[in-house]
Design goal:
Elements lengths: L6 E5 L3 H12 L3 E5 L3 H11 L6 E4 L10 E4 L5 H14 L5 E4 L6 H4 L9 E6 L8 E6 L5 H13 L3 E4 L9 H17 L5 H16 L4 H8 L1 H11 L11 H8 L16 H24 L7
Parallel strand pairs: 1-2, 1-4, 2-3, 4-5, 5-6, 7-8
Antiparallel strand pairs: 6-7
Helix pairs in contact: 1-2
């Protein structure tokens, strides 16, 4: 089947939905972007840029021809996602595969009221979706194996690296690891061990650059598992293991220090510095990904 014959619908025109539409349109997929808010749709159209001429922007889920794939990418709220998925299922043919771009909510919970849960699964893209290669593919307990296989083939045609989870756990894989890292980072800040800028430098220019070339398990193999075990034996008892979010994080959020979008988080931000940083980040991400994908030990026969 030629790429141009594929049809997809993206429901939710926020940041993730917009980059998904850009990704799809850039690979010759016929895209319909749906959002109930006309202003959000217009912002999405402007953000997509030149590629927007090939995308249909609409406030209604009604379709003349059912898409091959539908990606739900609305707010990370179970009740909202359940409602939207129900609307999607009522609007498309039973042959359409429906995906949720949730970052870690139970697939079964989101699809609990579906008539045909066998064609429903999680496809967790990472922002920006048109650049980051990895996609966590998360089947629900009812998802058919053929649906997972078809979704993976489609993702590979989009230049992605689909990674299938055997079990759906809260947060999936990436967010569990990311939050475990951040728990320790916040603990170190609270204890006064290091300042924010120094912590970022240590992580970015040590384990950060290494992780761009080797996953954590590959890196442990290269370092030696005996060495890792020896360090783990004395270090684990001293690592943060709290079951609640850090008090520092709670304090910042209560103060309105929400990050770049609010002008202050760990750092000060202006609209200009945020836009400049994001533009540089996109450009740098593309270069890093190009280097990382040139060679991977795991890809060897």
């Amino acid at each position: 089947m030629p790429k141009g014959s594929l049809q997809a619908m993206v429901v939710g025109a926020g940041t993730m939905g917009t980059t998904l539409a850009k990704l799809l349109a850039g690979h010759g997929v016929k895209v319909t972007m749906v959002d109930s808010d006309p202003q959000v749709l217009e912002t999405s159209r402007l953000d997509v840029g030149e590629g927007a001429v090939t995308i249909r922007f609409t406030t209604t889920l009604k379709v003349d021809e059912s898409p091959d794939f539908v990606i739900e990418t609305v707010t990370e709220n179970v009740a909202v996602k359940q409602e939207v998925v129900a609307q999607i299922e009522a609007s498309v043919a039973d042959t359409s595969i429906i995906m949720t771009n949730t970052s870690g909510i139970s697939i079964d919970e989101i699809g609990s009221a579906m008539r045909v849960p066998q064609r429903f699964l999680g496809a967790h893209f990472f922002n920006p979706a048109d650049i980051i290669p990895a996609v966590e593919v998360v089947p629900g307990s009812h998802t058919e194996t053929l649906v997972v296989e078809k979704a993976c083939r489609w993702l590979k045609r989009l230049g992605k690296r689909p990674a299938v989870l055997n079990t759906c756990v809260p947060g999936f894989v990436a967010n569990r690891i990311q939050h475990a890292v951040m728990r320790e980072c916040l603990s170190l800040l609270e204890k006064g061990v290091v300042e924010a800028e120094a912590l970022d430098d240590i992580v970015q220019y040590s384990i950060g650059v290494r992780m761009a070339l080797n996953g954590p398990l590959c890196q442990r193999d290269l370092n030696g598992l005996d060495t890792h075990l020896a360090i783990a034996r004395y270090l684990y008892p001293d690592l943060d293991a709290r079951q609640e979010p850090a008090a520092l994080l709670e304090e910042y959020v209560a103060q309105g220090r929400l990050g770049a979008k609010a002008g202050r988080g760990f750092y000060h931000w202006s609209d200009e510095s945020r836009a400049e940083h994001q533009a540089r980040e996109r450009e740098s991400l593309q270069r890093i990904i190009e280097i990382a994908t040139q060679y991977s030990p795991k890809d060897e026969p």
